[in-house]
């Protein structure tokens, strides 16, 4: 592509590089417009004899055509595209789940001159029609070789859908505190699970005792068929050897992590009993404000086995307040 200032007599079919303002001070012609004979005469009537245009080389792809091809290349499963406009295409989720981003591929795409691709945060929970990324070409055309390079890189973004999983809620505390615990914890926990498509198959309140917690976990999995368990209590888990982690271990669970570099949510406990994740929820789960549980729950409900390393990786951007 070459940028030239040419006489209006030669401008038909050329691409306008700059906006042109009419006699009323408003934009009369937008950059990127392919000039027609009628356009040329209107521009001439504004007192202009020349115009700044882009002249495409034989292997150039116009911005909207390029943007459409690029967007199709970087979009993976669970992603739909807007129509190209001004070299931009927005990418949207088609299903509820969380965003996967291939970081290496994202960097490769953005290393190419004339291509920019920005996404929301990796692993962010998404719903249908949520914008997850935007692609913009820089300039009025791109070499076909650049477009083909992105097509060879392949998908950058995809949405991992939430599976309709069966979830159980276990609450712990004293008999005197039961009503209060249920009042403050159940609504926000149920809302989080149900908004992500989970089916709540059991809810139980037990004493904050190792055996009681272990029995509740076993019952939730064996009798109710729970595939994910959330445990919340009158008091947050204060140590890896506290009552709740001991109960999880007694039930056959394995502690993956206690303590997360995310605020709110430092006192998160994550464990697994077989394939079933068990969340020892921090006290902040009683609020609907975003906390560590919101960062991992979509991934767990999508069937991903979140590891200690995955939670530690949340440290960058893990300060969710302030």
Q: Mind sketching the topology for me?
A:
Elements: E1 2-7, E2 15-16, E3 20-21, E4 27-29, H1 37-45, E5 50-55, E6 60-62, H2 63-74, E7 79-81, E8 88-93, E9 97-101, H3 103-111, E10 115-119, E11 125-126, E12 131-137, E13 141-143, H4 144-153, E14 157-161, E15 166-173, H5 178-195, E16 199-207, H6 210-222, E17 228-233, H7 243-250, E18 254-258, E19 269-273, E20 276-280, H8 292-301, H9 308-312
Helix pairs in contact: 2-4, 6-7
Describe this structure in words.
- This protein has 322 residues and is an alpha+beta fold.
- The chain has helices spanning 37-45, 63-74, 103-111, 144-153, 178-195, 210-222, 243-250, 292-301, 308-312, and strands at residues 2-7, 15-16, 20-21, 27-29, 50-55, 60-62, 79-81, 88-93, 97-101, 115-119, 125-126, 131-137, 141-143, 157-161, 166-173, 199-207, 228-233, 254-258, 269-273, 276-280.
- The protein has 3 domains: 2-55, Molybdopterin biosynthesis moea protein, domain 2 (Alpha-Beta Complex); 60-160, Aldehyde Oxidoreductase, domain 3; 166-315, Molybdenum Cofactor Biosythetic Enzyme, Chain A.
- The strands form 6 sheets. Strands 16-15-17-20-19-18 form a 6-stranded mixed sheet, with helices on both faces. It has a 4-stranded antiparallel sheet with strand order 7-8-12-10. A 3-stranded antiparallel sheet has the order 1-5-2, with no helix packed on it.
- α5 links the parallel β15 (166-173) and β16.
- 39% of the residues are buried.
- The model has no long low-confidence stretch (mean pLDDT 96).
């Amino acid at each position: 592509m070459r940028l030239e200032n040419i006489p209006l007599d030669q401008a038909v079919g050329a691409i306008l590089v700059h906006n042109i303002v009419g006699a009323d001070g408003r934009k009369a012609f937008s950059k990127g417009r392919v000039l027609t004979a009628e356009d040329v005469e209107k521009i001439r009537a504004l007192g202009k004899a020349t115009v700044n245009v882009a002249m495409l080389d034989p292997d150039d792809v116009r911005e909207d055509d390029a943007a459409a091809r690029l967007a199709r290349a970087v979009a993976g499963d669970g992603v739909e595209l807007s129509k190209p406009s001004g070299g931009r295409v927005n990418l949207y989720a088609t299903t509820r789940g969380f965003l996967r981003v291939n970081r290496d591929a994202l960097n490769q795409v953005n290393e190419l001159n004339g291509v920019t691709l920005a996404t929301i945060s990796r692993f962010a929970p998404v719903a249908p029609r949520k914008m997850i990324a935007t692609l913009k070409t820089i300039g009025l055309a791109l070499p076909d070789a650049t477009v083909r390079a992105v097509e060879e890189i392949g998908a950058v973004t995809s949405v991992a859908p939430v599976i309709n999983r069966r979830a159980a809620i276990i609450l712990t505390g004293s008999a005197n505190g039961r009503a209060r615990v249920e009042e403050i914890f159940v609504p926000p926990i149920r809302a989080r699970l149900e908004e992500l498509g989970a089916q709540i198959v059991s809810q139980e309140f037990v004493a904050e005792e190792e055996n009681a917690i272990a029995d509740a976990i076993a019952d939730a999995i064996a009798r109710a068929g729970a595939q994910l368990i959330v445990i919340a209590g009158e008091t947050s888990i204060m140590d890896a050897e506290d009552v709740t982690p001991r109960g999880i271990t007694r039930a056959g669970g394995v502690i993956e992590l206690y303590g997360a570099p995310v605020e709110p949510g430092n006192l998160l406990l994550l464990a697994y009993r077989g394939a079933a994740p068990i969340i020892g929820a921090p006290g902040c789960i009683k609020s609907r404000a975003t906390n560590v549980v919101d960062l991992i729950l979509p991934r767990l409900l999508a069937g991903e086995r979140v590891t200690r390393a995955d939670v530690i990786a949340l440290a960058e951007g893990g300060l969710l307040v302030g």
